[in-house]
Structure formats: structure tokens, C-alpha cells
Amino acid sequence: MLRRLLRAAAVGALITMPFGSVMTAAAEPALAVKAESVVTIGIPKGEVPDAPDITAEDTYTRPDPAAVQAVWDLGAANAWNSAESRLISLQAAYPDWHPPRDLSAYVANGALDQRIADAVDRHDWAAVLEALPDVGADTCESPFRLFARVDALEGIGEPVALDVFYIRTLTVCNAPDTVATLAARAASVLGMDSLAVLRDSVLLQRRAAADPGINAAYAKILQAENRFRFDAAIASGNTGAAVSLAEASSNPSLITEAGWALLETDAPGAASLFARALAEHGSEDARRGLVLASLATDDLGAARAAVSQAPDPASLAELSGRIDLADARQHRESGDWRTAVTLANSAASLFPALAADAQTLAGGALMDAAAKETDATNYTAARALALEASTYPPTRRAGRMRAAWSDLQLGNADAAASVFSQLYVEMPEAESAEGYALAAQRSGGMGTAEALARNVGGPLGARLTALNASAAFEQGSYLTAKSLAPDSFAPLEGIDSSWYRQAVTVRSQSGTSGQNRLSGFAATTSAGVVRGRNRYEAGVSVYSLDPGRSALPAVTASSETVAMPYVAWSREGETRVAARLGVSPLNADVDPALIGEFAVAREDAGRAIEARAFARPKTDSALAFVGQKDAVTGEAFGRVIETGAALHGRLPVGDRYALQAGVEATRLDGENTADNTRFAVDVSANRNFVRKGFAYLVSGPFYQFQSYDKNTNFFTPGHGGYFSPQAFHRAGLSLNAQTDPLKSWILKADLALAQEWVEEDAALANPRLRVPQPFIGGGDSSGIAGALDLAVARRISPEVIFSANLSAIQSEAYDDFRLGLALTWVPGGRDGLVRTDLPSDPFNPNAWNQP
User: Fold this and answer.
1) CB 831 within 8 A of CB 493
2) Dist CA 748 CA 740 (whole Å)
3) What is the DSSP letter of 265?
4) Which of 383, 393, 489, 718 could anchor a disulfide with 768, C-beta 3.0 to 4.6 Å?
């Protein structure tokens, strides 16, 4: 069997040979018809003899020639049964007569073919095969018998016999029409192995090259064999092999199937296959695939082009709807909400099954637009967009909610309260409760809101109870929140307890020994009590300072130990107030002076303003802070006090951004030192990064400028020993952050990096003397500076809080490092920590008094 299969040739497309009755040739009265005249019906015939020579006849009796001619005529008329009967009758009537061999063969073959044709008409395939004579391995039957045999083999379902038949026939037969027809038919019935044998048949390949009909049939054999291999690759999950076979086949149907197989894992590759199938006149299924593949790759232009090129684009309404929906999604993502809504509505109109997705997208796009308008504080537009979104079922509630918030921002508190109350009744949840509580508060409908809370339940009651306290809490007015709602905020437990604190801070500032260098520590003991919204504090700071020994004979700087007592008071509320009163260092070379500060601050809707009036010590050096004695005269000088006022404000720009600005004007006076004045301004812009766990996290650029009237940054008599440039510019970036309060720990961080430019005039050696004398110092400089200030507090037990502070400054002029540690005892305990639990830096008077 295998050897016979290997001798086979090729198979083409299916072309079925019809069988009805045996085809006939026209009768020739001259008895000159040749057997070849009926080759096309598959019935071989013998040569018709010449007219008999009467004179040469034997003496025995023979039939009349007309009777013999009648047999020929019956065969020519396709009446083979009658022809056979007539011949038998003649033989019986004339026993000594022997019919010509060609007539006998003519009638016998015709009668046999008639029986075969009759069996074919009855679909009696067993009779067909029984009637067909055996053929040799290298013999090609007549076309009629070939097709009768193949019909019978297919009819009884003999795949092995069919394989043998097709391979043998296509190998030994050489009539082009017969080979072409059988090859085409073999392509539809043979298995992959037999088709592969025909595919590789050199003989069939040669015949295909020589005859167009055979070549077309051979191509169908190749297609059929390729289809088998393609289906096997798909069944085994080898998509890559299937795609390669499809591409090599140039069969649009196969290429389309390969595209579908590839669509889920490689949409671009699938799109290429679908496009090729369409280019090769593939079915509309390839167009559908191309559209879906283009959608998967977001190539909407290609998807629309594929639909527009369809014979009937209207029949692709579903695909057009999906394209519009994908296009709407892209426009929404790009911020073109109106176009997104139009396209989404179009998608739902084209294909109603997409209505739910389209409505969700259209409503969502409108909600995006409303959110953007809200961010821009354009609440009227936001309200209109939100109401339009509420017409779509998926965003009905969200749209009404957003519209109500817009009403609240626009001052339409009554309208907002009405909508929020309806939404709350439909679904008692947090957002509608919050909105209703705020709207009720502004519209004077708290009683109605409380009645609804009692009837419906849910979170509204708690929101109404905590509303005012929450407003205070959001501003950091924890004592106010505690007094308004004592039981509403568990983390505020103990916030109004008394406390006692011991802190130690170490400082190391680089510089010239005996002049601006400063090292030492400060120990601060303090206590505080709370009464309602008021906080009272008293304490004393003891400083041990060592500027080092100076190389200048006129400077007698030495170690100093001094004390600074103080009292402080602050009050929370819509307007926050803070005051501090104390004296400059006691037990110094210079007599102490009264110092203090009063600050007022107010914040509303993100806008803030703060005003200060103060008299602060300068802590740039030991000379500026505590003073020293003139080595020549013994006269004390130094201990500079800066007296002045400051005004700072903050203006929000949207929800995330803010602008800040400040101005200060001060006068500086010291014991036996030249007086001075200072003017300063600062501006900054920052963005608030909302992050979980942070009360605030802001960053942005800043610019600072200050100018002193005189340069007294020297350490000879008459100078103050503090940095006093005539022009100082600083520009850079800052980062400021604080973690959420009312936790077991709290962290505050301030970081800045800036470029500095300094202009300093030359100064008289002793600016207080009005005599000729040399100038010292002066010049311009610039450089990069950085500053870091970290403060952290941690509750190590309910009654004990540990805190630390780290401050570092690095610049071209000097480096300053400070580290502080503190322990705070809170009798009765504290649940959560707040900013006031962070110790202030005793070397930074600007941070002593915070409203």
C-alpha cells in the first residue's frame, strides 16, 4: 500500500463528473465510424469493417448486411441492450456465422458500460465495482469507467481504496482533461498524507507545468493539503505555524482564519492578515476581523476606513458603533468631553446593545468636564454639566451630587440642601450626608436635617454633631474642636492636659574663633496648662556659649552662661492670637532688655493673613546675643535687639496651589553699637501634594530679599556681630511637610536649596566714632546654600513624649548645626500628638511664638 501511495501524483479542486445515461455518438450509415468517435463518453469501440466483398464470400449462410448494420446503428443510438440482443439473435439464426471481432468488442463494451451506467444511476455502487473489470497497475481506464469507479468508491466510503485509486490514476493517466478533473476532485476527498504524496509527485508537477487545467487542479491539491496542515497547527495551538502556512497559501479564507487565531494575542499581526485577505478578495469576515483588530490597537482611522470600503457599510452598524465608542473613549481621555459625548450617543444609536457602555462613557465624560470646571471654580458651568450627566442612568446620582455641590459653592444653599436630602433618603451614605450637613448649616436648616437624621439614620447625625468641631479641627484648632464636641474626637483625649517639658539643644556654628564661631548648648525647662481654648506656658532657657578665643587684641570674647526666662499665652479660634514676653540673657556682660512678641493670624477658605510685632534678640554670634567687653576700655557692647513688624499672607489658586508673600521692617539696637535698620520681602508659590498620612506636603519656588542700612557684621567695638548685607538675594526651591496630627508620632520637615547673592559695603572699624579711621570688609559674593529643619515627637507611653529637633544650614559663609532632645510629661496621658508637642529651637527666635 505504501509503495503504491508513494507513486501517486497531485490533487486539485472538487469537480464532480455528472452521470445520467451513457453518452452516444451519431450513427454513420457508411459504417466508417471509428472507435475514437466515442472516446469522450468513455466507451472504446472497434474498427467498423469495410463493405463486405460478396464475390469473396464462402458458401455458408450469413446474415444480411443490413441486419449487421442495424447492430451498429443500435450501438450508435446508445441502445446497447438492444444491440446485444440483436447480435445474439443473429448468432443464433446463423450458427456458422462469426461476427467481426470489432463488432463483438463494440457491443460487449457498450453493453458493459450500459450496465455500469445503469448501476450508477441507481447508486448501486457495489454493482458498479462488480461490473468494472480489473485494470493493471500501469493501465489508465477510459474516462467513463474512471469516473464510474471513483463515484462507486466514494459512494461506499472506502478511503484506503480511494487513496490507492487517485494516486495510481493520477500517476499513470496522461489525458490532460481527465487528470485535471480527477486531481481537482481528489483535493476534496483525500487525507493529508495522500495529498502530500500527490504534492511531491514529480510526474504530476511536470504535467501541471505543461497544462493549465492540470496546473489549476494541482493548485487545489496544494491548497487542500495546506488546509490540513493549517487545521492541525490550529488544533495543536501552534498559531505561528498556522500563520506561516496561511501566508504561504495565498488563500484569503485561510489567511482570514489565521487572523482570527492571532487576534487575541497579536492584534497588529492579525490586522495585517485581515488586510491581506481583503486585498486578495477575501470574504467580509476578513473586514470584520480588520475592524476588530484595528480597535484592539486603537487604530481607529484604519477601522473606519475598513467599514467605509465595505460593499454595504450600513450592514456593519455594530462595528461602526464600537468604533464610535472607542473614539469616544479616546476623546474623553484627551479632555475633549463634548466630542466624547457625541460619539458615545452615536454608538448607542448605531448598535443599541452598546447603550449601557455608551451611557456610562457619556455620563463619565460630562462628570470629567464638571470636575474640571469645579477645579477652575467655574461652578455655574460645572453645575450645568453635572445636570446633563444626571440624564444618563449610570451617572444620575453622581451628576445630581456634583450639581448640588456646585449649588453650595454658588451660594444656593437651599437648592443644594434639597438635592442632598433627596439623595440621602435614596441612599444614606457619607457624601450626601456631608453635603446636606454643610448646606443645612448655611441655609439655617439644621433642625430639618436633624429630624431627617433621626428618621433615616445613617451617618448624617454624626456629621451634624461634628460639623463645627470638624471645621475647627481642619484649621488645627484642636482645643476649639475639643471644647465644641468633647466626645466626638477620640484622638483629642488629653489634648487639654497640663504638661511639663525638659529640653536640651546643642549648637555648633563654624566661623572665626572668638568672632562668629559659636558652640554650646541650651537647656530649657517649661510647663504649660490649658483652659478651654487658651494655652499658658512659662519657662526658662539656660545657655552655655563658647565663641572661642579671638586673635584680635580688641576682642575679649569668652565662654558665657546666661539665662532667659519667659511666659507665653495663645488662644485658638477663628482669629488665633499668641503672645510671649521675656528678657534678653541674664548674667551677661550687657544688661538684659525686655523682649517679646505679639502675633495675630486668621484663615478662611485657604486664605490666610498673619501680623506680628516683636522685639527679638539676634543670635548670629555671642556678641550679638549676649554682648562682650572692649579689651581696651572695658566697656560692654553688643546684645542686639531687633524690633519691628511683619505681615504675611497666603492666597490659594485653585485647590492645589497657593501664593505667599511677606514684608518686614525692623530696627536693630544694641549696647554701645551702631544702630541699624532692615527691610525684607519674600514671595513664594507652592503646590500642595495631597498624600495619605500628611497634613500638608507643599513644594515650590521662593525668592527672598533683605537689605540692612549698615554693614555691622564685625566684632570690634561699635559693631553688632550679625549678618547685615546691603543687598541679599536668595532664590530657590523649598519642601515643607508635616504628618497627620493626633497620631502616636508626628514629624515636621522643612527643606530648602537656594542660590544666594550678597553685597556688603565696607564698614568703619568703629562706626560709632566720628573720626577718620580705616574701612574694613566689604565685597560681593554668591553661592549655593541649603537648609534642613526636622522635628519629630513620639509618644513612648500615654504620659511621656520624646521629641527631637535637627537643624542644619550650609552656605559659602558658614555652617550651622543644631540638635535638640526633649522629654514631655503629660499627667493623665495624651492620645494623639499635635504641632505644639514639637519643641522650638532656643537659638531661633523666629520660631518661639506661633499663633
Assistant:
1) yes
2) 10
3) T
4) 718
